[in-house]
Design a protein that fits this description.
2 domains, alpha+beta, six-stranded antiparallel sheet, 15 strands
Length: 239
Amino acid sequence: MRFSIDVGSELDLKLYQAVLLYKNDHGNRYMATVHGVVQQNGDGSPVLGAGQLLSTASLRELARQLGTGCPVEFLPDHIVARTPDLLAWWTPAAVRPMFFRDGSELEGISGKRLPHPALLFVVRSNVLYVRALFASRKPRPDSKLAAAPYWNIDSNGAVCAGTMRVPKSLTVTSIAAWQQAFFQSEFTHPGGGGRLTKRRGGTTALWRCLAGKQRFPISTLIGQEPLDQYLKKLEAGRR
């Protein structure tokens, strides 16, 4: 086969292995086999040899060859969970400045320092998700999360990128950049798809009343599912 790369050159690649995926009629059992190429037919099509079950070691070797293996990282205390496709961490409650779009209902408090609850941040597939925490401490797997009562966030916690300068990497060292992208971006509009706070008037009324305050009112948070269920849902690609 021919494979073009974006630097304008071409590479001649030849098929040397194939991975075949199987599932049952109910879609709840899966199997994969690896096959070598033993020969080619007269028309150039490959003939696959006998298959072997795909093992964890084979997957690791495939990831290494494709350059997608995970480097060794030392995880600080604020890391909550880490997989090759997902990174989750938390931040304690704090007073931070917020920025709202000129002409919006909250432009009058744009740039002011406002109290924030403890937060859970999750990045998966280059999308940032945010949930609020009821306590300002590292959450456990069974800790109940809350909707993050911010503009630009949907009911599942996904952040609308808007003016965010999204980091290109998903590593422990990129955490500060992801947080900065969220807090220093311009909040432009209330999120849709569900209620994010118990405060009458929604998130707009909530942030307006917090100007000049030092502590976020935890009583306004709306409870959601436990941490482990939320992360499993995101890891499975469900929203």
